[in-house]
Prior knowledge:
Blueprint: H1 2-18, H2 25-28, H3 31-59, H4 69-76, H5 81-109, H6 113-117, H7 138-161, H8 165-178, H9 180-183, H10 188-206, H11 211-235, H12 241-248, H13 252-255, H14 265-277, H15 287-293, H16 310-315, H17 340-373, H18 380-393, H19 400-428, H20 432-440, E1 447-449, E2 455-457, E3 463-466, E4 469-472
Helix pairs in contact: 1-18, 3-14, 3-17, 5-7, 7-8, 7-10, 7-18, 7-19, 10-11, 10-18, 14-17, 17-18, 18-19
Amino acid sequence: xxxxxxxxxxxxxxxxxxxxxxxxxxxxxxxxxxxxxxxxxxxxxxxxxxxxxxxxxxxxxxxxxxxxxxxxxxxxxxxxxxxxxxxxxxxxxxxxxxxxxxxxxxxxxxxxxxxxxxxxxxxxxxxxxxxxxxxxxxxxxxxxxxxxxxxxxxxxxxxxxxxxxxxxxxxxxxxxxxxxxxxxxxxxxxxxxxxxxxxxxxxxxxxxxxxxxxxxxxxxxxxxxxxxxxxxxxxxxxxxxxxxxxxxxxxxxxxxxxxxxxxxxxxxxxxxxxxxxxxxxxxxxxxxxxxxxxxxxxxxxxxxxxxxxxxxxxxxxxxxxxxxxxxxxxxxxxxxxxxxxxxxxxxxxxxxxxxxxxxxxxxxxxxxxxxxxxxxxxxxxxxxxxxxxxxxxxxxxxxxxxxxxxxxxxxxxxxxxxxxxxxxxxxxxxxxxxxxxxxxxxxxxxxxxxxxxxxxxxxxxxxxxxxxxxxxxxxxxxxxxxxxxxxxxxxxxx
Length: 494
């Protein structure tokens, strides 16, 4: 909830302060438009605060007896056997995935593969490059890039929280190899998604000390990241980031003073209200949300799949008339981010729209809460950290395009979990008859004999064997405490 409220505060209230509300927006827009826009922001916040508890209790009804895993780690530290074991398994899976991506990239860009790892030596190659309107294998190329972003994020979180020296060092090396591809890109949202989860994990879970110490560390890191993103904003339209770095160099003090572009979602909300009031644009009653919903369907399977944001871009004056060839098939020079509240207004108007947007963000909160409640399961900690940062990126639009790394991360974890459980089952299959014998000697199902007497219950990750048939069961960790062991802006992709 705090992540969403902070996102709204930054993109809307922060916009008013950052972009000089009195000398810009009050000059551009009518007072009635400004008043309507602020009421829409307030409506979103009220509906969001009311719906979040109910959506969470409904969506996570079977998991409410769990404690917050992140709060347990913050209080008791990250040296939990259950967590560290899962991090080691996750590291192996992500290394395998990254190796496959590197092989595919080497096939596509051939001799340029060295710049795939070290773009700062010359330029950044594009192994996943595609046209704006998808066709052929473009869906697979987009999938590969999102998976690459996801594993790069995981490497950062593992480097921050793993206590296994080998895993930590190898994760740092892989960060050195995988992060430059995103750091030298023209988009800031990918940098946030890759870098910030590692920073938060390191500051809040790895560093021991007072909260003020953690905040001070984060503030220093924020200054560096903010300066680099300002450097990108200043140079991305004139040259490549690598070329600008070689020619101009990077001065943290100067770059920190650059005014960021794009932090204007309140302004866009005012434009939406203005266009609706004067009849230039009419709410499309969910068409934009539907286009976002079906975005995962490859265009090669659905050639006439709805495009995202085209009608509003034309209303904002970005249409191209009859020239719609090649990359300009969409008929616009660029698309415009409407903001998470503005997106609701574009779809359902100024009253229903903010409420619908608030409901969608309530579901997102419930999804993140489930990752926190199961933080000791395979990969949930990196996924949770990634989701928190993607929440901020959702401030520009609620779209699969933003959360694909999270969605594909869930898919990868499902695959890794199946492999992990299968491996455990095979390893324990030979002891199945012994388990049955122990059970017949007086031990209840779900228990194992303890050689020192008494009973030892299965941990959440363990597998119960019955007549050589594997039955997996998820038991909640002890409560309270931690289980003691085991277990772009332009162009937008389509």
